[in-house]
Amino acid sequence: MFSEPNSLLSVPTGPLQIAAATSTDVDANSQAILLSLVIPTYKERDNIEKIVYILSLLLDESIPGEYELIVVDDDSPDRTWEVAQSLMSKYPHLRVMRRQQERGLSSAVVRGWQAARGSILGVIDGDLQHPPEVLGQLLKAVQQGADLAVGSRHVEGGGVSSWSVVRRFLSRGAQVLGLVILPGVLGRVTDPMSGYFMVRRQAIAGATLNPVGYKILLEVIGRGKVREIAEVGYVFCERKEGESKVTWKQYVEYIHHLLRLRLTTGLLGKFPISRFFRFGLVGLSGVFVDMAMLYLLSDDSTLALPLTRSKIIAGEIAIFNNFLWNDAWTFADVSMKQQEWRQRLKRFLKFNIICLAGLVLNVLILNIVFNFLIRNRYIANLIAIAVATVWNFSVNLKLSWRVTEVK
Ligand code: GDD
Ligand code: MN
Predict the structure, then answer these.
(1) What distance in angstroms lies between residue 57's CA and the mean position of ligand 2's atoms?
(2) What lines the ligand 1 site, CB under 6 Å?
(3) What is the C-alpha separation between 166 and 169, in angstroms, rounded?
(4) Containing H/E element for 67?
(5) How far, in Å, CA of 296 to CA of 224, rounded?
(6) Is 33 in contact with 22 (CB distance < 8 Å)?
(7) 193 with 175: CB under 8 angstroms?
(8) How far is the CA of 213 from the centre of ligand 1 (A)?
(9) What CATH number labels 23-265?
(10) Buried b (16+ CB within 10 A) or exposed e, 380-398
(11) Which stretch of DSSP H or E encloses residue 402?
(12) For a tag site, which of 109, 120, 357, 387 has the least CB within 10 Å?
């Protein structure tokens, strides 16, 4: 089936599923495609020629004739797709898709991968914020056996050049929230928000991806068969043209995405329910210790100390009580292997910090729920305690009682 030169790719429809074999066989005399790199664009008219030029220069150098670039544009008002189409005569390995029925960064990437012919599928932003020179290291990692190679801002050599404190806080906050809701996915990479990575086709072939918003990497790790993951540090650069399309909507979609992944994949099965149950029981004992200590310290018939001071002491004693029980019972299988007093002390300090952060979260949620959602302080408090318990459990599981020795 021969298409006109410079013709746009037909837009795949139906489920977002990647085929095991390439969608259209390459014609006999051309080489097999190794890498299909999708460039999702929305209003990138001023960036698209530059990124295609730089990527072509780099890939002609490293894998000449074995790659393709697939621009997937969502009918940008600045007609980015048209500029990309005009470049096709100059760049024979460039293919362009103009989507008019669907919108969204994640689904754009998957539709691009559905039209792809490569055995390795990649994604890079079209605004030059993802340094193209990192591609070589990502490709090498996959060729050396990794199923997934992720450009990460949070490993050696990584960073963000010009994000505001708010954006940094939101990005890290989103990551910690993800660790609480979906530790089996978010805990596997240091930068789960990354939109710059390559994945072996076989690792996601057959999986029906169901992404929302911006975070396609969550779908790949959550629904794919990803065994080995490599990470390459990169510095997220400043945008030169246009602006970021990230709004509050992406953050809401992100939480929706986490919850859906949690409920619709086997990751629920991987959630250590019995350990969580023990953790909850220990937490309950902590409530009694907290109450008893508050009575002994602050009641008029006992020491009658000031309430806040009593509460802080009682809270700390309850945390200590919970640590002892969790260390001896809930996480005994892990703590048994780390008996040195230094290791115990380190676990206690981490536990303490996480539980104090949990206390802050508890108070925050209580106020948000009571002031904006349910005008009943006891139901609001129960919700706050439940969220804080999931937080305390997930983050302690990940950070305090994890197997630290390197196998
Ligand atoms: N097709 C399509 N449809 N492309 C889109 C859409 C969309 O709805 N929204 C954004 N894009 C394209 C942009 O044109 C750009 O090429 C890329 O996706 C990233 O969009 P930005 O709006 O620039 O996102 P960012 O720079 O704030 O964040 C990016 O980098 C982060 C770190 O890797 C995104 O890729 C984030 O997902 C990522 O976490
Ligand atoms: Mn950007």
Answers:
(1) 21
(2) 40-42, 44, 72-74, 103-105, 108, 125-127, 129, 193-196, 214, 236, 244-246
(3) 5
(4) strand 67-73
(5) 54
(6) yes
(7) yes
(8) 10
(9) 3.90.550.10
(10) bbebbbebbbbbbbbbbbb
(11) none
(12) 357
User: Cα dist. 221→192, 194, 196 in Å?
Assistant: 9, 12, 14
Q: How far is the CA of 127 from the centre of ligand 1 (A)?
A: 8
> Considering Cα of 62, then 64, then 66, then 72, what sign does the dihedral take?
positive
What are the pLDDT digits (tens) for 220-254?
Answer: 999 999 999 999 999 998 888 888 888 888 888 88
Domains of the chain, by residue range, sit at 23-265, 273-399
- Find tokens 């902590």 and name the residue: 286
CA distance 29 to 31: 7
Helix or strand (DSSP H, E) at 183? helix 183-186
* Index of the ligand 1 atom closest to the CA of residue 245: 22
Residues 107-162 have pLDDT tens digits of 999 999 999 999 999 999 999 999 999 999 999 999 999 999 999 998 888 888 77
Q: Please state the pTM of the whole predicted model.
A: 0.71
